[in-house]
Amino acid sequence: xxxxxxxxxxxxxxxxxxxxxxxxxxxxxxxxxxxxxxxxxxxxxxxxxxxxxxxxxxxxxxxxxxxxxxxxxxxxxxxxxxxxxxxxxxxxxxxxxxxxxxxxxxxxxxxxxxxxxxxxxxxxxxxxxxxxxxxxxxxxxxxxxxxxxxxxxxxxxxxxxxxxxxxxxxxxxxxxxxxxxxxxxxxxxxxxxxxxxxxxxxxxxxxxxxxxxxxxxxxxxxxxxxxxxxxxxxxxxxxxxxxxxxxxxxxxxxxxxxxxxxxxxxxxxxxxxxxxxxxxxxxxxxxxxxxxxxxxxxxxxxxxxxxxxxxxxxxxxxxxxxxx
Length: 324
Ligand SMILES: [Mn+2]
Prior knowledge:
- By secondary structure, the chain is of the alpha/beta class.
- The chain folds into 2 domains: 3-198; 218-321, Diaminopimelate Epimerase, Chain A, domain 1 (Roll).
- 47% of the residues lie in helices and 18% in strands.
- Strand 8 and strand 9 (261-268) form a beta hairpin.
């Protein structure tokens, strides 16, 4: 097996993954996520690839030792590149950095880090992919992005980047997103992809309905506004933001329950509270719970029965740690 590129399913994941494919042409591409990266790597290690590039995958505290173990299973000859912008403790950084070629920085998106890391070997459109990732992840105010926006008309870059953001709400992230990754490596602009443009418009119309739904159905506990089980799938980050706004709260949650689990996106509003830290302090106290992310945007999965308790604990944590 020549090489493997692994990335996350959101726009920063897709663009950083496409940059990975440009650097390592002919690689197999896989989507992964923090809760399953250890098992995906375990499967890939058996195929003894030459190189593995992992981007935009957060290191899940509860899976960290599993990840280290599985990295030790790769043959000496495999070069593993890990590029990420999610929080890592100093200790995690050290241990991970011993096993992989690590580029880790807080602030820029993963696509920017991938671009800067491999820019010597990338075609011109690699840069645009990096800027779409930055726009999508709200990481569009770094020294690098500011310098690059100044070289083009940044309004056009935003149109292209946001077409991807909107269309992705309506795309099945395993099937069609993979095609999108390959199309982006070819240098096709989002505006030139007919399906992407129409999906983006559809998603934008649906987003208006999502806002109305959240406006009538969101509930509030302490400083948290939340919406549970919206009648449509996707739009989780957006509806979490809306839930905070319409309830005049500092944290917004959009949660979806299945038979025995509840899975949620969490965003903050008018607050500097660190959501990743908040989850790090609450989730270890709940069985089967996992999650994390960035200070301003995070996600979690837990037992359905624990959801009320989780909301209560997060409300108390927010009250105790609130910073405007
Ligand atoms: Mn990202």
